[in-house]
Design brief:
Length: about 80
């Protein structure tokens, strides 16, 4: 199982999009400062996740969400969930 996840920084309100096979470990790494791209933006909250059975599907979706079109779709999904 692979998970595309979205973290929101409580420091700057920006989002981080990532992909992992171990979500709890990865979120912990982000919040402990072990991830270079988020270590100055912690604390981070998990606000959205999608699970995929295939690794290539998950990483493909992660790349798509990082595009302008993908970000619009993602924000729509997040807003429908009432998270942001």
């Amino acid at each position: 199982m692979y998970i595309v996840y979205i973290l929101k920084s409580l420091k700057d309100n920006n989002f981080y999009i990532g992909c992992t096979s171990n979500l709890n470990k990865r979120v912990s790494e982000h919040n402990s400062g072990k991830v270079q791209s988020t270590k100055h933006r912690k604390p981070l909250n998990l606000i959205f996740k999608e699970e995929y059975s295939e690794k290539h599907q998950a990483f493909s979706k992660e790349r798509y969400y990082k595009t302008a079109k993908g970000k619009k779709e993602l924000m729509k999904k997040i807003n429908q969930c009432g998270v942001v």
